[in-house]
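Hello forum,

I keep getting stuck at the same step: I have a sequence, I want structure tokens, and every attempt I make locally crashes halfway through. Rather than fight my setup again tonight, could one of you with a working pipeline run this one for me? It's a single chain of 305 residues.
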Amino acid sequence: MKSRNTGALLLCCLLFPGFAGVWKLQEKIDAQFDGMHQEADDLVLRSGKLLKVMSLGYGPLIADLYWTRVVQYYGDKAVRRDSNFELLWPLLDVTTTLDPNLLVAYRFGSMFLSESAPQGAGRPDLAIQLIQRGIQANPDYWRFYQDLGFIYYFELHDYDKAGAAFLEGSKQPGALPWMKVLAAKVSEQGDNPETSAFLWNDIYMTTTDPQMKENAATHLQLLKSDDDCKAIDRLSADFEKKNSRQPSSIQELVSVGLLKGVPTDPLGHSYVLDKDGKAQLNPESPLAKKKRFYGKTLSNLANQH
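Reply #2:
Ran it on my machine without issues. Output:
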């Protein structure tokens, strides 16, 4: 009994300083939160393995604290459009080392890493590394293969590897049947608007993170506007054949009966024609600004069709 009491006392002596250190770290984070604009972030310990040893079996608890720090860090950077995400990978590395089964850290962490600046760190290579670590620690969780496929498809435009990831995921326990269908579609057709819309819709329907849901909704809106502009361009081409000139405005297409009314984008702003007679988003539409951030992907899609 005396030995047991001594052990308990020793454990308390070790734990209290550790938790006190974590508390002090959190106080420091809170006190300097406004100062993050000057990049005053500080990660005291970057070694997940060392922290795991020091945690004395409380690794998952400390991992939750670090994951909270990841979300705070990413959220502040994203709001301010600050593309310097230097601490994102070290924080995620520590988090997933302390708790290899913290699924949310792999899934959302990989999104934070893979998103192009300024929405994310622009490091799809590290995102892939993080997801592969998640697969190794949680081999039966099929959603990781879905996330891996998304990174290869959207960020790296490697459709063979995206298809292979979806196919491998379709073989895991509990995987939904559409994973196999999607694997075939991506491998056969590569980059096309229908496949992209399918993927973004899945993200929108399954994510619980507000920022990720908003991001997916924006991509769906941009894909819809891209389709609308193509349809208007076809009508403009018909007008040019009959009149030997380009239409001066979309209103002119309405006046000759090619359109029943001036079409609007998903946010309700009227489309306009540029100087070359091509349909585009109204500069006053919030989607026009967002398209500049995602223009590369949409340009690739437009070149396919």
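Strands lie at 272-273, 279-280. If your local run keeps crashing, start a new thread with the error log.
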